[in-house]
Amino acid sequence: MTPTAEAAYAETVTTTAPVAPVGSPRAARSRWSRRWHNLGRDTRLVAPGFFISLAAVIILVVLFALSVATAVIWVGVLLLPVTLLVATAFANLSRRRATRWGAPIAEATNRPRARGLRGWLDVVTEDRRWTDLLFESVFALPVRIVTFSVAVSWFVGALGGLSYFYWGRFLPDDGSGLLNLIVAGWNRAPVVDLGFSAEATFQFAAGLILLVTFPFVLHAMARLEIAAVTAGLAPRPAEATVTSQQTPAHATTVGVGEDWAPTGSVPVAGAAR
């Protein structure tokens, strides 16, 4: 093979990450269909996050408080590495959940420990474990409270509005429906009962809007959690155990190319000439 042919072959074979063909279903999907297609992926990230963080805060705060309180009698000195190891376990769980969602986050590499008491106490000297403890016990829960609350409230509001025609009949008929209050506030007039049919129609329309926009809101909450995990738990290059070539395959096939920019793309040979 001549040098010219070899150069042409390298330009043809060496490419970046696979790109979906123009005519493929993924390329043809609209933004609306992508959000509905990724609904399960976003739900699996957002829904359990609150409960995981709640358990992490309870366990880590109790362990850290016991470690500090009993450090004077040396019990806390031995208990503090346990606290940091548990924090790392929760942090690695957050990294794995983010990776399954599609974010290119690798697990951190911890220094190998020596045997015996010295190796056990060396855990306390690792900066990454303290970062894991700080994130999982302080920052993760507030973020996941917001994401979980907004997503659940939006979905429940959609279901409540769509089914108001049924359960709204059992509410006291005192003329204080949402539509009546909105009309009275808009016109700056006394509240006037517009009737159950008008209220049910308004609630149904509002519920339909919430339902249609729910995938976008859920995806925004998933992106917020991913941003928090990336900022707090993404390892430095020297700590990463996984490179961009080792990212799980689904990270480039489940819509991540549309929503998340993967790092470490391989340049095309001879592209810039």
TrEMBL record:
The chain crosses the membrane at residues 45-66, 72-93, 145-167, 200-218. Keywords: Membrane, Transmembrane, Transmembrane helix. It comes from the Bacteria. It comes from Brevibacterium metallidurans. InterPro entries: Put_sensor_dom. Pfam families: Sensor (PF13796). This is Putative sensor domain-containing protein. Residues 47-229 form the Putative sensor domain.
